[in-house]
Amino acid sequence: MDYYVKNNDIILHEKDFDLDETLDCGQAFRWKRIESGYRCTYEGNFLNDSLKISEISEKTFVFHNVSEEDFLNKWADYFDLYTDYSELKRQFSEDKTLSEACAFAGGIRLLKQNSWECLISFIISQNNNIPRIKGIIERLCQNYSRFPSAEDMAGITADDLSYLRSGFRGKYLSHAAECVNTGEVNLAEIAAAPIDEARAALRKIKGVGPKVAECVLLFGMYRKEAFPVDVWIKRVLEEYYPDGFPEFAKDNAGIAQQYLFHYIRNKNA
DNA sequence: CGCCAGGACGCCC
DNA sequence: GGGCGTCATGGC
What we know:
- The protein is an alpha+beta fold.
- Among the domains are: 2-82, TATA-Binding Protein; 115-221, Hypothetical protein, domain 2 (Endonuclease III, domain 1, Orthogonal Bundle), CATH 1.10.340.30.
- It contains twelve helices and six strands.
- Strand 3 (32-34) and strand 4 form a beta hairpin.
- The longest helix is centred in the middle third of the chain and has 15 residues, at 130-144.
- The model has no long low-confidence stretch (mean pLDDT 95).
- The structure holds a DNA duplex.
C-alpha cells in the first residue's frame, strides 16, 4: 500500500480507486458528497466511526484526521485496500464484456461493510430506487442519531416505523430486528458458514429473498462469490451471457458483478 | 400522468 | 417448480 502520514492526515496513492464510483454505486447508501473545493470529498460512517475522505488529484486521496493505526486497522480494510484490484481486473479482462466494464469504471472497490447495516439497508432496497433508499435510511439514522443496532430496534413494530415511509418493507424491518435479537438469526455465525447454509439462514427473515441475501453476503460479509441478481444484472446476463457467467470469475463473481452493474446502468447515460 | 425501482410473498396451476 | 398479481412510496 502506497501511503504516508502528513500532519493529522493519511495520503494514499491508489490507482484502482475512484471515490464516486466506489461510494455512489449502490453498494452503500450513507456516503455524502461534499462540495468543498476539492476534486471531490465524501463524508460517511462505518459502525460508529465517521470519515471525511477526499480525492485531491488523479488517484491521490486524503483520509482527513485519521491516525496511521486507524487507517491500517480500520479504513484500509473497509476500502479493501489489502486486495490487489489490478490483479482482479487482469483476470476479468479474459472476458470481453467484463473487460469493457472494468475499463468503463475501473475505480470501483468492494466496501467491507457491517452485516447488520447491510441486512437492513438491502431489505429497504427491494423494489425501490437508490435515491429513495438513501432517504429512508437517512430518516432511520436521524431518529437514533446513528445507524441503529438491532438492540436499538428491539420491540419495534411496523407501525412504529411509519415515519420512515418505507411502505410494505416496515414489517420486514421489524421482523429482522426480532430475529437478530432473539438469536434466531446469528449474523456472525452466518458470515462464517458455508455459503448455501448462510443463504438459507438469511432467508429465514421475512423480506429476505435471493437478491437481498446475496447482497448481505457480498457487501456485509465479504463473501466475494455471492452474486446478487437484480433487474439490471438480469439484463446483463440475458444480453451478454446467454450461455452462463464465466467459470473463471466465480470466486470473485461479486466484484465482477459490481463492475457490470455500474456499466449497464451508466454506459448510455 | 404512467413507468419504474439493487424484490419478495402468496396464491395459482 | 414456474408464472403472475400485489405490495407503498416517490423519483423521473
